[in-house]
TrEMBL record:
Binding annotation for Mg(2+): 8, 10, 171-172
List of catalytic residues: 8, 10
Name this polypeptide is given: Beta-phosphoglucomutase
Family label: Belongs to the HAD-like hydrolase superfamily. CbbY/CbbZ/Gph/YieH family.
Record text on cofactor binding: Binds 2 magnesium ions per subunit.
Record site: Important for catalytic activity and assists the phosphoryl transfer reaction to Asp8 by balancing charge and orienting the reacting groups: 116, 147
GO BP field: carbohydrate metabolic process
Originating organism: Fontibacillus phaseoli
Coiled-coil portions: none
Length: 220
């Protein structure tokens, strides 16, 4: 039986994946580096610095000639773009079906955790007013390795006091699904079935997420 559900934030609870894209796009344009939706797919779930490295690796020099300070400035610049874009995010931007799912979990007595790689996650959770639905919010700075490593999902399970095999992870990114699987959890993917093919159960949109359907498919 399922004993806990651990959620990603960006692209699962709210459509901030599009704001991350826009914020990176602004920086990439300034640096004259090609950047499109397809490339952005690889950045979903990946932390800020690692994302920047992937973008810079497109340059002929492999980006190796930049100082750490320069890279930190670019990462900060992306984050400033992002923070402007999410300034007005409120509960109207919670994705369809998510609140119903949260209510069903509460009713079933299933605790929920948040395993977002974003350092802006707590701010968004507050703006979206979904704080009461989470028993645990993992601080991404407290884990050694970002997704696709399992660390953040394992930390959430540990803080919830639930063994991995009784946990379900919900993700919209390939790196996220890999993290859930490496953590030994049941992976629910939201989005494109080809991109998320390693997931145990896939829905195209959040509106199709239902606790009862997940429970029916759950193998733990
Ligand atoms: C999430 C998003 C990524 C983002 C990462 C770090 O995983 O899917 O696109 O790069 O968080 O976010 P941050 O807000 O800390 O830059
Ligand atoms: Mg995501």
């Amino acid at each position: 039986e399922i004993q806990a559900i651990i959620f990603d934030l960006d692209g699962v609870i709210t459509d901030t994946a599009k704001y991350h894209y826009e914020a990176w796009k602004q920086l990439a344009d300034e640096l004259n580096i090609p950047f499109d939706w397809k490339f952005n797919e690889q950045l979903k779930g990946i932390d800020r610095m690692a994302s920047l490295e992937k973008i810079l690796s497109q340059l002929p020099d492999e980006g190796k000639s930049f100082t750490l300070e320069q890279k930190q400035d670019w990462a900060t610049s992306k984050n400033m773009n992002y923070q402007l874009l999410i300034e007005k995010v409120d509960e109207s931007e919670i994705l369809p079906g998510i609140l119903d799912l949260f209510h069903d979990l509460k009713q079933a007595g299933i605790p929920a955790g948040l395993a977002s790689a974003s350092r802006n996650a707590r701010t968004l959770v507050r703006q979206l007013k979904v704080e009461p639905f989470f028993d645990v919010i993992v601080d991404p700075t407290s884990v050694a390795q970002g997704k696709p490593a399992p660390d953040i999902f394992l930390k959430a399970a540990e803080e919830l006091g639930v063994a991995s095999r009784y946990c379900v992870g919900v993700e919209d990114a390939e790196a996220g699904i890999q993290a859930i699987k490496s953590a030994g959890m049941f992976a629910v993917g939201v989005g494109d079935a080809d991109t998320l093919s390693d997931a145990d159960y896939i829905v195209a949109e959040t509106s199709q997420l239902s606790f009862y359907d997940i429970r029916r498919h759950f193998v733990g």
